[in-house]
Design goal:
Order of helices and strands: HHEEEEEEEHHHHEHHH
Largest sheet: 3 strands, antiparallel
Number of strands: 8
CATH superfamily of one domain: Band 7 domain
Structural class: alpha+beta
Distance between the termini: 105 Å
Radius of gyration: 44 Å
Helix content: 55-70%
Number of helices: 9
Strand content: 15-25%
Strand order of the largest sheet: 3-2-5
CATH topology of one domain: Tetrahydropterin Synthase, Chain A
Shape: elongated
Length: about 325
């Protein structure tokens, strides 16, 4: 069956357009850390488990040996190995280690017990639960937001949030998920602030918009124990027809400035030529000097040969005789 090349090209172009449109409509993912807490005390807990388990096993063997000799030790040893293993497992889980940038919010029987870290923490299983909070500068992505400006222009804006946890206790207790809360509030504030501005203000006053959004989000995020360092707008996407109109407008503005500049140059050149002509007319030797400068400007190249059939003095004499004849 013959293949129509034009139809194949059209199908390929349509597939590419659909792929581009789908990529533009797909939301961007949040740039959050994949692991919130890195377990730094795992090796320490393993060592404590092995040491306590061995010590408990040896102790049970010694107690059995002292109580009833070797037969009693053979009975107490398996029991001591099992009991010492569970005791060592529990005691090893008491030790937790927080990194330099982490703080541990400890809850004992559901109530806030204290803020611990960095370094070694004592957290008793069953009684205590701990949540580690990263106090470094964190980054969250603001996905594409569809916003309509004050002059009814639809735009798609995305950005990034830089914030830091200042009070881990409030960040854990007062809000369910401080990362999600800051992100959602920033998205809502971005739509509110940009919706109150025109397109020209959005494109020209970018720094002021970023500062205003950060101020609005900071007023709420401070209640959650977090501090907004800054909010930056990454991309402002407009409809394609609007981009073409703005491109034509910019081209017309540049053409207008070029035309005005050329007209001003022609005017200045005309004024200078008029002033030069007046100077030559008022000075008898000015024209003669100009003629000599023009001849000298032809260059010293041998290909440029200038032949003066009549000396300049003869021309001056003829001009004087013409003036004398015309006099009454």
């Amino acid at each position: 069956m013959p293949i129509n090349i034009q139809q194949a090209r059209a199908a390929i172009e349509q597939a590419q357009e659909r792929a581009i449109a789908q990529q533009a409509l797909s939301p961007r993912q949040f740039a959050s850390p994949s692991i919130e807490h890195v377990s730094l005390g795992r090796g320490l807990r393993v060592v404590i488990l092995l040491v306590l388990w061995a010590a408990g096993s040896v102790l049970s063997f010694v107690l059995g040996l002292g109580a009833g000799g070797l037969p009693a030790a053979g009975i107490t040893l398996p029991f001591g190995v099992i009991v010492s293993f569970f005791v060592a497992l529990y005691l090893s889980h008491i030790i937790r280690v927080a990194a330099q940038w982490e703080r541990g919010v400890v809850l004992r029987l559901g109530k806030f017990h204290g803020l611990k870290g960095p370094g070694v923490l004592l957290v008793f299983p069953v009684l205590d639960s701990v949540r580690f909070v990263d106090t470094r500068l964190l980054t969250l992505d603001i996905p594409h937001q569809q916003v309509i400006t004050r002059d009814n222009v639809p735009v798609r804006v995305d950005g990034v949030i830089f914030f830091q946890v200042r009070d881990p206790e409030r960040a854990v207790i007062t809000v369910q998920d401080y990362r999600f809360a800051v992100s959602q509030y920033a998205q809502a504030s971005l739509r509110d602030v940009i919706g109150s501005m025109t397109l020209d203000e959005l494109l020209s006053e970018r720094d002021q918009i970023q500062s205003k959004i950060a101020t609005v989000v900071e007023s709420r995020a401070s209640m959650w124990g977090t501090h907004i360092d800054s909010i930056r707008l990454l991309d402002i996407d407009m409809p394609e027809d609007l981009k073409r109109m703005m491109s034509r407008q910019a081209s017309a503005e540049r053409e207008k400035r070029a035309t005005i500049t050329k007209a001003e140059g022609d005017r200045d050149a005309a004024l200078n030529l008029a002033a030069a002509a007046a100077t030559m007319a008022s000075s008898p030797g000015a024209m003669q000097l100009r003629t000599l400068q023009t001849i000298d400007g032809l260059g010293p190249s041998p290909s440029n040969t200038v032949v003066l059939a009549v000396p300049v003095e003869v021309l001056e004499l003829a001009r004087s005789l013409a003036k004398a004849r015309g006099a009454p």
